[in-house]
Write a structure and sequence with these properties.
By secondary structure, the chain is mostly beta strands. It is built from three helices and 16 strands. Strands 8-9-10-11-12-14-15-16 form an eight-stranded antiparallel barrel. A five-stranded antiparallel β-sheet has the order 1-2-3-4-5.
Length: about 280
């Protein structure tokens, strides 16, 4: 994908990404939460749309492609208003129109999301012996290839679990996660999350009873370390604006980490937006 530039279409200015650059150029961007496509030939730019009227799609974009492609009318009727289908059409047209045109048949289209979340946990893997709920907040960065690996994502999470009145331990964790989206649609996704590796820093406070020579006091221990918990969770996300509202149930089962024997409760709710 090429750099983003400003274009004026029907009197409106848009920041658009160049998906295919050639005699016939494909432009796109996420505008008001929707992916919109534009066709550019010379100085002429038209939006590619497919409106619905009386239950039938009008396929206005087909007319634009026919106008811009000229002698490729036969192939135009099979083009779908999707990134993959449009890329293929534009690349094939440009290759016919210009023998020097070249392109990557399998481009990587990396997309990043930044999110923030909050929730509660009984922190069964970090020394919560009383099994009380503790507040938790965090941020995450999600990376995915929207072109070839739409169902797969890598997620880096930073979370902070706070101590409570009953449980005097807190934990900071940075984790590396893999997500597989077993439901993947334009507006709703559901996924399995696997925490592959993590660094955790845990701080504990405990009361020391008074003795004949020492008064009662509070002592603190702390320490951190890396591990590979291979912990599984599930989540779902719903498209809202330029991002997603998401909910996760984390660390339901861990193959390589011992808990306190209690049933795990680690839930969070958050929002992520496209960078």
């Amino acid at each position: 994908m090429f750099a983003q530039n400003t274009y004026t279409v029907d009197g409106n200015s848009y920041q658009l990404n160049t998906e295919v650059h050639g005699t016939l150029t494909l432009l796109s961007n996420s505008i008001d939460g929707n992916i919109r496509f534009f066709s550019k030939k010379g100085n002429e730019i038209f939006e590619l749309v497919n409106t619905k009227k009386n239950g039938d799609y009008q396929e206005e974009y087909i007319a634009v492609l026919k106008q811009h492609s000229g002698n490729m009318d036969a192939e135009v009727s099979d083009v779908k208003l999707t990134m993959g289908s449009l890329r293929t059409f534009y690349n094939e047209y440009n290759k016919q129109a210009d023998s020097s045109f070249s392109y990557d048949e399998n481009p990587v289209r990396l997309i990043a999301y930044l999110g923030a979340f909050g929730g509660v946990t009984n922190a069964i893997f970090s020394g919560n012996e009383t099994n009380v709920y503790q507040p938790k907040i965090g941020v995450e960065v999600e990376l995915m290839d929207a072109q070839k690996l739409k169902r797969h994502a890598i997620v880096f999470r930073l979370s902070q679990t706070f101590k409570s009145d009953e449980q005097k331990n807190s934990a900071t964790q940075i984790s590396f996660n893999y997500r597989f989206k077993f439901i993947n649609s334009e507006t709703f996704n559901a996924f399995l999350n696997t925490k592959v590796a993590a660094y955790s820093y845990i701080k504990n406070e405990f009361n020391v009873a008074a003795t004949d020579t020492e008064p009662a006091r509070i002592e603190e221990t702390s320490g951190g370390g890396f591990d590979a918990p291979i912990a599984f969770g599930i989540g779902a996300e719903y498209k809202l604006g330029n991002g997603y509202l998401f909910a996760t149930y984390n660390d339901a089962v861990a193959l390589n980490q011992d808990g306190n024997g209690e049933f795990p409760i680690d839930v969070s709710l958050g929002y992520k937006f496209k960078l």
